[in-house]
Hints:
Dihydrodipicolinate Reductase, domain 2, alpha/beta, binds nicotinamide-adenine-dinucleotide, 2 domains, 36% helix, six-stranded parallel sheet, 343 residues, 15 strands, Rossmann fold
Amino acid sequence: MRVGFLGAGLIATYHSKSLRRSGAEGPCGIVRAGVFDPNTDRAAAFAAASGHTVCDSEDAVLDSCDAVYVCTWTNEHPRLVAKAAQRGLHIFCEKPLAVSLAAAQTMAAVVNASGVTNQVGLVLRRSPAYLWARHLVTQPAAGRVMAVVFRDDQFIPVQGHYGSTWRGDKNLAGSGTLLEHSIHDVDMLRFVVGDIARVNANEANFHGLDGIEDVVAATLTFRNGAIGTLTTVWHDNLARPSLRRVEIFCERRFIVIEGDDWFGPVHWTDADGAEHTLQGEALEEVATPLVDGDLNPDGEFVRAAVAGLPAWPTFDTAVDAHRVVDAMYTSAHAGGSSVQVES
Ligand SMILES: NC(=O)c1ccc[n+]([C@@H]2O[C@H](COP(=O)([O-])OP(=O)(O)OC[C@H]3O[C@@H](n4cnc5c(N)ncnc54)[C@H](O)[C@@H]3O)[C@@H](O)[C@H]2O)c1
């Protein structure tokens, strides 16, 4: 299985390192194939660190591999995914899939029709913290989930370790904190609490970047009757790179996820007053049996591709999150009115 990369920036580097950690190179016979990035310095640095070969075009990468990672800025994803699917390559595409819901839906249709193994970068689906929180919510002892408060804040990622400027350009990023960052949060709200039926949202733009909102506050009504809020903020406090805090209120259990997105801690309190906390390796140990395979998204993608099996989360899962994000923008642009999420 020859693996190529389109884009050699921050997230491509993350996936390349994660592939190495997964151990898939040995047993799966993963071969490092081509990488292309119009920023040739980045491509060269990526190749030197990973063992990939620098190519001078997208097509050269696509010709060099059986599976490809699409890790460019967002508006390039649809075109590159279509090219890869046409060649029958297995595809890992970063989130968000595209700058619009319609484009994301077309991408999912294209990969589904081509029958290739496909996976998206909604990596929190394999986070021990969220897997464990979901387990706690679904236990009968918790009762029904009633409410959720989800807060996500980070410094606006056109600075700091992101080293990107494209996130300030609506033509490349589509929009701001909700689509570019908090599509993860929407996906986790769906994963832990359930499908979302209706939203109301408001947005603000403090930085003055055209079309790049930096605050969104949304109210969500879930199909199971629960009600929640999502607040997402891009500020300039460089001491806060990316921080989430989630409070989930069930009839007889209160759950908090805080600290690290992967390793928690997760705290929970039951009706008998018992208080519990799990974090780090102990959290990983209890969460691992909750999924098929292991928690490394990249190892699981290439293993599925080698075996010709489906991977997850799929493009369809990402489209479901895009639907909610799209409804939130529709609401925000209409002054916060109630919008049904297309099902
Ligand atoms: N899953 C996650 O948690 C996560 C985290 C960060 C970024 N992302 C997503 O990953 C994507 C990339 O983000 P990043 O942080 O790596 O950005 P980045 O700026 O670090 O890297 C993007 C790279 O894509 C290159 N590029 C642009 N067009 C290209 C093309 N046609 N072919 C090849 N390369 C091209 C750019 O030159 C740039 O080097 C975005 O869609 C972003 O939303 C996901």
